Amino acid sequence: MLPEQHNNRAWFAVLPVVFIVAFSGVVPLMTVVNYSVQDILDVNTRFFVGFDWYRDALRDERLHEAFLRQLMFSFTVLIVEVPLGILVARCISRSSRWTPFVLVLLAVPLLVPLNVVGTIWQIFARGDIGLLGAALNGLGIEFNYTQVPLHAWITLVLMDVWHWTSLVVLLAFAGLSAIPPVYYQAAALDGASRWQIFRHIELPHLRSVLLIAVLLRLMDSLMIYTEPLVLTGGGPGNTTTFLSQYLATMAVGQFDLGPAAAFSVIYFLVILLLCWLFHTMVVSREP
Amino acid sequence: MAAIELSGVSFRYPGSTGEAIENLSLNVDDKATHALLGASGAGKTTMLNLLSGLLLPTSGRILFGDRDVSAVPAAKRNVAQVFQFPVLYPRMNVLENLVFPLCNNGWKKLDAAARALEIAKELGIEIVLEANVSALTLFERQLVAIGRALVRPDVALVLLDEPLTSVQPELKWRLRRTLRKVQADLGVTMIYVTHDQTEALTFASAVSVMHGGHILQTGSPMEVHDHPEHEYVGFFIGSPGMNFVKAEVKRGAVRVNGTALASTDHAEGECTVGFRADWAMLAPDGLPVEITGFRPDAVQNGMPVGIASLKHDGNRLHVRAEGLIAPGPSHVQLKHHMLFREGRRVA
């Protein structure tokens, strides 16, 4: 091996990356941080207000509600999508010649643009002409997601499950395919039950892909914006207004740039904190 | 524990055209160590899966003692298997791994733990019982896997599928010795699959050489080495393998291109003469060959002895020789030989 050499000029090699990260991440973020400490009336009239916007944001009742709704939504979709994804992945044969076809079919929802997903479900769940909504109403079950908050929530969660479970399925399927068949053979010889095989062989082997799946779904669901906006517009009332939509209303609708910027920073930090917590508590405890 | 008997067993993989195992019969004595030896693709793994019940034969019978298990699935056969690499339940500790097959068979926790401890002591892994398997070395993990295979006291058959493959070379001997000791102590019937003939010949009391879904020969290690029933067995067993030369029997002698090599009373006609390196020597006359190399492996009476590589008619031959062997033309004479016709030994 060559002796280790020190040459400080090597730092220049890092410069391109520094520039890219600066322009793509740090500069826009700092602009937001800059806005968040000012009261901006128009382009030339602005006052420094310190942490006032942050204080306001943290005391805002409607924001607290949106935050709780956000957590509840993320929790619900994780609770449904992860087990469902594993279940579906377990049902896919690993050696059939139809397997590639099934996988492509499963991936289709992932390719649909977000606002199209919203529109599809907006129509699908409508009580008058939508296949789902009209069918339910036809069966005598009153279903109206524009009036009943619970129905709006059910529709939203169903939509997210439809849209994203495939991601968990694909990841879990990849994880299951990576288990050497001898583990199943050993389990068969040991007289293990189907549940024991799942519990003692499949789940431990799936651990790392499931962590990725949970992390991706957690981050994504915390940032959900387009689909609920198209589907329910945040209603009825504010019952499906999540953090990002609340933020958009503030920044684009009411043009409160200062408070919106402060809230953006808080929002960003919350997501960062949750993902960091998840990482330190679960991922890095890997032996 | 029981004697194993296969009679006329065939197996064809669904969708394939040929039989993976064809009309195969085999007897394994109770408490024996039997090795299945063959190159990859010979049908060894299929045989193991037929024995363990992961595959069921398309025809033929498999008996464990008096019990016909031909149609009995894996979970009910009471067979254990050790795989090429240690297959353990990843989130369990060693003890939990060892008691797992017992608890599934309705053992009480305490009895199972006592039995697991017994086996762990036998294998010398009792000090790691509480350790998680991920903390163990590959060698220790394979010991645990062997322990899990042996933990059921009434296990009918233990299958070993190249169990030394994943173990470091310097630990292979240790693991093999442990296996032999355990086999002697517990008296289980073992079937050991390998493509490594040294492993098979030193481990097993009987060896079956497999090729193309058939067993070509079954016998003691000595028998299959010294009396191969089949050209392939002679070629596959031994290092170097047996030499084969196209020959014919004419006027009471085995002749190659007219040169008489040995006298025989066998029927006249085409045949193949086979001889091991030790059964031949370099001589001033006999079968003309070209010496291409010499690999001494010992010194006797101040002279190097070893294997000389020869060429005859484009065939490579190996003959044991002594002295200072230089490349160039020479001749080979046979002290002992065998005759094969259509692959089978005839004399």
The name of the CATH superfamily of chain A reads MetI-like
Strand order of the largest sheet of chain B: 6-7-8-3-9-10
Overall CATH architecture of the largest domain in chain B: 3-Layer(aba) Sandwich
CATH second-level architecture of chain A: Orthogonal Bundle
How many helices of chain A does DSSP assign?
12
Q: Name the structural class of chain A.
A: mainly alpha
- Please state roughly what percent of the residues of chain B sit in beta strands, choosing from under 5%, 5-15%, 15-25%, 25-35%, 35-45% or over 45%: 35-45%
Determine the CATH topology of the largest domain in chain B.
Answer: Rossmann fold
Name the shape of chain B in a single word: elongated
Which structural class matches the secondary elements of chain B? Answer: alpha+beta
Radius of gyration of chain A: 24 Å
Number of self-contained structural domains of chain B: 2
Q: What share of residues are in beta strands of chain A?
A: under 5%
Query: Helix share of residues of chain A?
Result: over 70%
Annotation, overall tally of beta strands of chain A = 2
Q: Order of SSEs of chain A, N→C?
A: HEEHHHHHHHHHHH
- CATH C-level class of chain A: Mainly Alpha
Under CATH, the homologous superfamily of the largest domain in chain B reads P-loop containing nucleotide triphosphate hydrolases
Summary keywords:
heterodimer, A: 287 residues, mainly alpha, MetI-like fold, two-stranded antiparallel ribbon, 2 strands, flat, B: 347 residues, alpha+beta, Rossmann fold, 2 domains, 6-stranded antiparallel beta sheet, 24% helix, elongated
Question: What's the gist of this structure?
Answer:
Chain A contains twelve helices and two strands, in the order αββααααααααααα.
Topology of helices and strands:
The complex is a heterodimer of chains A (about 290) and B (about 350).
Chain A lengths: L14 H22 L1 E3 L5 E3 L3 H8 L1 H31 L7 H13 L2 H11 L6 H8 L10 H29 L3 H9 L4 H29 L3 H6 L11 H11 L3 H25 L6
Antiparallel strand pairs in A: 1-2
Chain B lengths: L3 E8 L9 E8 L4 E5 L6 H9 L6 E6 L2 E2 L10 E4 L11 H11 L4 H15 L14 H13 L6 E5 L7 H18 L3 E5 L2 H7 L2 E6 L2 E6 L1 H6 L4 H6 L6 E8 L2 E4 L2 E5 L5 E7 L4 E4 L3 E14 L2 E10 L2 E8 L5 E7 L3 E4 L2 E2 L2
